[in-house]
Automatic annotation (TrEMBL):
SUPFAM superfamilies according to UniProt: P-loop containing nucleoside triphosphate hydrolases
Domain AAA+ ATPase, chain residue ranges per copy: 25-168
Protein name: AAA+ ATPase domain-containing protein
Native source species: Mycobacterium marinum
InterPro entries: AAA+_ATPase, P-loop_NTPase, TPR-like_helical_dom_sf
Length: 714
């Protein structure tokens, strides 16, 4: 009763694939189609053809499965070495480096089969490999369920897209009834192999032999239920997969919950006896053990939850930490769970988890471990900045350790910056960064706050060093975006618009793995697009980003809405501008007071849209003065430039004063723009328009050109 698949030949697709692999200007191709259509066969044949033409080729296989998708780097665990600590972006760089360590440049052919079943980190790694041209690649996937990073392989035109379909338009092999009948008729040993693979795929040949019995895997292979593969070096142990994705799905249905739990328990019992040197293997075991009768020690589960949090897998971190907390009620499990929930924007739930702690029963070290996420959640997610700041001060009065006090001061600096008190933020951050005992957390908070505060104050020379210190401190949260905004602000004021866009793009090129990180990266990029005058593209990016960020408490949420209102206003859409502006005003508060000038500026552009120039100029001047009162000189200069664009002839004096204080390329252009407008000098305005266009500030350039035309016509 062996099942035989009549795999279509797809000669034309194979020829396309051969051509794609031969094109040195492109990394390879992605094959898209339904299960059972022959994608894997095409990939194997194309790889064989390529290896015949290039004998030095080293072929490596990566196969996504539904169970591997729950583990960071799960499908790549046999190929990459990753550190246990570090930020996701750094881990991805390390993974890329380890993948090519044993292969000479140009010799690696990476086949990624069923890429729609990759975890986020693995999918991101595939995207980055294609983007960098680090390997020849063949990727197979089902387009309709592929992760965003995999779909971007063809939407970003990185790999040639090859679509394949069954000759009759449907895959007969994918009929569930046929598969159910086949599974029901399998002999017990082969059926056992399929049952174990339905709870974890792949499994090593050795482990499956222990679990299902001698000869069981061979029987399953002969009957067409399973297949063995060697994924890396020829001498590496073989692993076993189901022969078709539908087998695992239907076998799981037939197995039922109780049967699956039993198989999972047996598997965890066996795997627990192996030394797990690879982090992905330990996380896989921890995840697998959650729904079994072979529970891991609570401390091990908490440690795995911490590792998942550091890797940026917030979903897995939440599952593991919740399981550990349910079993033990321990503080560390509670802290990991609270952070995972908070970073996912679920502040109310995080608050419930964290406030259950009695601080009076904590040691000083425990108090610190609890106080930092508690305060951060209060400030951003719960929207209680004053309460959070007071709580930090109370906590500081309780601790005596200098390192602990320094960490609390660093978080206080971040709160001060977000609240718009940038001088205090700079003072506190400077003290923290000068303290030898400051740990990585303190340095990350302080350096990122100081970097953005410095950029908005116009102290651009300080930003690179502060950004470097922040990036060197290992912190898995979202502080990298704060640093990113500081760097982008500095580049824009230096007239390096293209470089600013390139930097912003890095935050959206799937180096940022999950929401809300992806949305924040899009806010950074949209900010640059608005400067470039690409208002439609900016608004299209900001609308979904703002919707995502509104569900969190981050100050990026109000900022995204301010920028959205500005982008829509400059397209002339009155109704949508008003709607976005109302949302921005509703979400704005103390925790986003740093961006108060941007809110007033959004109001100004909204009034300009309805031709209320007096109102627009009033709001622009208010925005500039608010920025100056807050010592945000660079922001004030930018806002005064918008006033000039809107026709404010009184802006020359403040612009001249601020440009002298800051001394940057854009500041000097703004002075010339303000002077030309005040003098009604058509030639000078046209010259300024050319200068602005040359550096990529096309929105301001268009306004200057229009002013030149009006001045010339008078």
């Amino acid at each position: 009763m062996p099942i035989r698949w009549n795999v279509p030949q797809h000669a034309a697709a194979l020829e396309q694939l051969d051509v794609a692999l031969s094109d040195l200007a492109r990394p390879g191709a992605v094959i898209l189609g339904p299960d059972g259509v022959g994608k894997s066969t095409l990939a194997r044949l194309a790889a064989e053809h390529f290896a015949q033409r290039h004998p030095a080729t080293v072929i490596r296989w990566v196969t996504g499965t539904p169970t591997e998708r729950t583990v960071p780097f799960g499908a790549f665990s046999h190929l990459v070495e990753i550190a246990e600590l570090g930020k996701p972006a750094a881990l991805l760089r390390a993974a890329r480096a380890s993948l090519g360590r044993k292969v000479r440049q140009g010799e690696l052919l990476l086949i990624v089969d069923d890429a729609h079943d990759l975890d986020i980190l693995s999918a991101t790694l595939v995207y980055q490999l294609a983007l960098a041209g680090a390997a020849r690649m063949i990727v197979t996937a089902r387009a309709e369920v592929a992760p965003e990073a995999i779909a971007a392989l063809w939407t970003d035109n990185l790999l040639d897209r090859i679509d394949v379909a069954p000759p009759d338009g449907k895959t007969k092999q994918s009929e569930p009834a046929d598969v159910d009948e086949f599974i029901a008729e399998l002999p017990a040993p082969a059926r056992a192999v399929l049952d174990y693979l339905t709870v974890e795929e792949p499994l090593s040949l050795a482990d499956l032999t222990v679990l299902a019995g001698e000869g069981a895997v061979q029987q399953a292979v002969e009957l067409g239920a399973a297949e063995t593969r060697v994924r890396g070096e020829p001498d590496e142990p073989a692993v076993v997969y189901t022969a078709h994705p539908l087998f695992a799905k239907r076998a799981r249905v037939a197995l039922g919950d109780d049967g699956a739990r039993q198989r999972r328990t047996e598997l965890v019992t066996l795997l627990s006896q192996h030394p797990n040197e690879h982090l992905s293997d330990r996380l896989r075991l921890a995840s697998l053990a959650l729904d079994t009768d072979a529970l891991q020690p609570v401390d091990d589960v908490v440690e795995s939850a911490e590792q998942a949090l550091r890797l940026g897998d917030l979903t897995l971190a939440e599952r593991l930490a919740q399981a550990a907390l349910d079993r033990s009620g321990g503080l560390q499990a509670r802290l990991v769970l609270g952070q995972a929930l908070a970073w996912r924007g679920r502040g109310r739930e995080a608050g419930q988890v964290l406030t259950a702690v009695d601080p009076g029963q904590l040691s000083e070290a425990e108090l610190m471990a609890w106080a930092v996420p508690q305060a951060a959640n209060q400030f951003w997610m719960l929207g209680e900045p004053e309460r959070a700041t007071a709580f930090l001060q109370t906590t500081r009065n309780r601790v005596t350790d200098l390192t602990a006090r320094t960490t609390l001061d660093a978080l206080t600096a971040t709160f001060a910056m977000n609240s718009g008190n940038v001088p205090r933020a700079i003072t506190l951050a400077t003290e923290v960064l000068a303290e030898p005992s400051a740990d990585d957390t303190a340095i990350a908070w302080a350096a990122s706050a100081a970097a953005l505060a410095s950029a908005r104050m116009g102290r651009f020379a300080d930003v690179p060093q502060l950004a470097q210190r922040a990036s060197e401190a290992e912190h898995p949260g979202l502080l990298r975006f704060t640093v990113g905004l500081a760097q982008i602000t500095t580049l824009l004021m230096a007239g390096e618009v293209a470089q600013a866009q390139e930097l912003a793009q890095r935050f959206t090129d799937f180096a940022e793995l999950q929401q809300p990180g992806r949305a924040i990266g899009e806010v950074l990029l949209a900010h640059v697009l608005i400067v470039k005058g690409e208002f439609g593209a900016a608004a299209a990016m900001l609308e979904p980003a703002a919707a995502e960020l509104e569900r969190t408490g981050y100050s990026w949420g109000p900022l995204s809405l301010m920028l959205l209102a500005t982008a829509i206003a400059q397209q002339g859409n009155i109704a949508e501008t008003a709607k976005a502006l109302r949302r921005a005003e509703t979400r704005h508060g103390t925790k986003s007071a740093l961006f108060a000038p941007e809110l007033s500026l959004a109001r100004a552009w909204a009034k300009a849209t309805v031709r209320d120039q007096a109102g627009a100029l009033f709001d622009t001047r208010e925005a500039a003065r608010a920025a100056e009162r807050g010592k945000q000189s660079a922001v004030a200069l930018c806002v005064w430039h918008d006033a000039v664009r809107l026709g404010d002839t009184r802006a020359l004096a403040p612009v001249t004063r601020l440009a002298a204080e800051i001394d940057c390329k854009v500041g000097n252009i703004v002075v010339r723009h303000a002077r030309a407008l005040a003098d009604n000098d058509a030639g000078a305005l046209a010259s300024v328009a050319d200068e602005l266009a040359a550096i990529g500030m096309h929105a301001a350039a268009a306004d200057a050109a229009a002013q030149a035309e009006r001045a010339g016509g008078r």
